[in-house]
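lol ok so funny story. i was supposed to be doing the assay writeup but got distracted and ended up predicting the structure for this chain instead. priorities right. anyway since i did it might as well share w the group, maybe its usefull for someone
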Amino acid sequence: MKPLNILVVDDEEVIRETLRRWLEKGGHRVVVAADGGEAIEAFGRGPFDAVVTDLSMPRVGGEEVVHQVKSQAPQTVTVVLTGHGTMESAITVLREGCDEYLLKPIADLNLLLHALERAMARRDALLMAAAAEQVSRAKDGILELVLDEFEGRLEEMKKPVEHLLSSATAGDAGKARAAAGQLQGAIAQFTAILSDTRAAARSLKS
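and the output, tada:
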């Protein structure tokens, strides 16, 4: 996992500093906060790739931290730690967008690293999928513009043909009408090709 900018939030200094040292040892850049209010202020000065927060803290708890983080930067990974985990608390923070939920004390801090890795992998996969979708939509938009341009040109081509048919003199009416007929045939074929291309493009999007 590449080095991350991580915000660690815990009201217990021993835990806070232990996590900071452990994460920095792994090459990550760490900012610490002693409670949720301090964390929200620090997050505003970010950016951060991930936030690791305790759930139960005075003033502002981890649930509000997750809510604020996901509201401001949905792509930021959040990991919630708690020593008083219940099904209700887990459901609450997961609804707020929490990516991982771990119980304290963490016997092996590698579990935290694994949680961060899982969450970052999911985030990166979602970002890549969103980027691919945007590229696909951009290509579809360009194709539609090209097809619209061709249709406009076809309409312009029809006008001189109609004029040729209506203004042909008696002496050259036969030749004029034959030439105009050939042009009309070519325009009809091109129109059919254009229609098929547009239909194929739409089927690829559906």
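Helices lie at 13-25, 36-44, 62-72, 87-95, 110-167, 173-205. The CA atoms of residues 36 and 65 lie 6 Å apart.
back to the writeup now i swear
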